[in-house]
Design a protein that fits this description.
Length: 245
């Protein structure tokens, strides 16, 4: 089977609510890196009121948002909580950024507002901190042979991981989940959350390809090696961000 015979379907969760800091560029990176290999990508925008069919999607993406929009997204996610857990158990891939990441945990506790319930795909919780973590961040990721992942963080939430949920990476530069334990992001099964904006995937091609491989494996029930691409431009962007103070 040639790679041109392959396809994946992506659910873009609540783009009308969670769309700040250029996070939509992650969808573009996935589509381009698939299309350059002849892999077809179908992106379905999941908007408020949509009843998700967990058998339909191989990959779920959710960006970050402001507090008001995060509240609205939480309400919609809770309506689909059971279906999204079924998707997770079928090895569907999830990538959630910042506010979306927080909603994949058990809850987010603001300073002066009611607790915001998450859907518990990640065994994690977040509470508001007194300091805002802003700046470039780089870490070492065990899932891509300890290669670096780099991006831009801008959050005051303090996220703590529990149980079988493990960090996405070990912080080499920046603050990460909570500024204390040198972890950034989270993973459980094929569910990934991170605070990295900017967009994350265009300048981290190895991680982008890793997620694509997981989505293909989920759909076709076997390992599918990806054809190599010329990543000279992407690697230059990556290395610049790694070195940037």
């Amino acid at each position: 089977m040639n790679q041109i015979d392959f396809s994946i379907t992506i659910a873009h969760l609540y783009p009308e609510l969670l769309n700040i800091y250029g996070d939509m560029g992650n969808i573009s990176a996935i589509k381009n890196r698939c299309n350059w290999r002849g892999i077809n990508v179908n992106v379905v925008e999941i908007k408020s009121g949509y009843r998700i069919n967990p058998d339909e999607f191989d990959f779920y993406f959710m960006g970050g948002g402001q507090d008001k929009q995060q509240i609205e997204a939480s309400i919609e996610l809770l309506k689909n909580k059971e279906r999204l857990h079924r998707a997770m158990e079928s090895d569907a891939v999830f990538l959630a950024i910042c506010g979306g990441y927080q909603l994949l945990g058990h809850y987010y506790l603001p300073k002066n507002a009611e607790k915001l319930d998450g859907i518990g795909l990640l065994d994690a919780y977040t509470k508001a901190g007194d300091k805002r973590f802003i700046g470039n961040i780089t870490g070492s990721c065990p899932y891509i042979n300890n290669s670096t992942i780099t991006g831009f963080e801008n959050h005051s939430g303090l996220t703590f991981l529990k149980g079988d949920t493990k960090p996405l990476m070990k912080v080499l530069k920046g603050y990460g989940n909570n500024g204390k334990d040198k972890t950034e992001g989270a993973r459980y099964k094929n569910v990934f959350g991170t605070y990295l904006h900017g967009s994350l995937l265009p300048k981290n091609p190895k991680f982008c390809d890793y997620l694509i491989s997981l989505a293909l494996k989920r759909k076709y029930k076997c390992e599918i090696p990806l054809q190599p691409l010329n990543d000279e431009i992407e690697e230059k962007a990556h290395n610049f961000c790694v070195k940037y103070k």
